[in-house]
Write a structure and sequence with these properties.
With 220 residues, the protein is of the alpha/beta class. The protein is 30% helix and 28% strand.
């Protein structure tokens, strides 16, 4: 009998706590390091989702509301006794521009904030939808291969035939084709010191089995 009474009391208590009016939310603390979004913007974004009490509030709705801001990457929402919420926000980390009007984050996932908020000096990656992660991986790998030459990959493009080309920080365009991308870049790095002594290159076509074809930049 005593056990039954305790169980009934517990059930009643839980029911009371989960009612929408019980323990209404009175404070929302937003945490994170922000460069492209403000706490005021986050407060406004989630305001409509902060409804109910501590145990009845829909934390998933709050998370989704915060993620409607393009620069918001990850959100966690925790209840804080007796009447608060802690919202932890991580911003997107832009790794590249994508097709000119969007960005890729560090995981190769596209997002589209206002163009005025794009960080400067990002590499440009262009290609069909679905190739984002592949091309970001190519850009990063080629960047490491070219680093000893003090060159950067400022642009990488995949065309409709899935052939690759890249533009370097010195203005040279590399024609890479569809196959053996990294061996071709390696060949270029080995030949570059000799080629650079000859003059400025406009284009280097690496789609040859044992060499490359160079178009030299004009001085006019």
């Amino acid at each position: 009998m005593l056990c039954a009474l305790l169980a009934a009391s517990l059930a009643t208590g839980l029911w009371l706590l989960t009612r929408p009016g019980a323990l209404p939310i009175r404070s929302v603390r937003i945490e994170g390091e922000f460069a492209h979004v403000t706490r005021d913007e986050l407060q406004q974004a989630i305001a409509g989702a902060v409804r109910g009490g501590l145990f009845s509030v829909d934390v998933g709705a709050i998370r989704r509301a915060a993620q409607t801001l393009p620069w918001v990457h990850h959100v966690t929402v925790r209840r804080v006794w007796p009447d608060g919420l802690r919202v932890s926000v991580t911003e997107q980390r832009a790794a590249a521009k994508w097709n000119g009007d969007a960005l890729l984050n560090s995981e190769g996932v596209p997002f589209k904030p206002a163009a005025a908020s794009f960080p400067p000096a990002l590499p440009l990656i262009e290609g069909p939808n679905g190739s984002e992660r592949l091309l970001l991986g190519h850009q990063r790998a080629m960047q490491k291969m070219l680093a000893p030459l003090k060159l950067e990959v400022t642009r990488i493009t995949m065309d409709e035939r899935r052939a690759l080309s890249a533009v370097l920080s010195n203005g040279t365009e590399l024609i890479l084709g569809r196959d053996e991308i990294y061996p071709r870049v390696t060949r270029f790095t080995r030949m570059y010191p000799l080629l650079a002594r000859r003059g400025a290159m406009q284009r280097a076509d690496l789609r040859y089995s044992n060499g490359l074809a160079v178009r030299w930049a004009t001085t006019e």
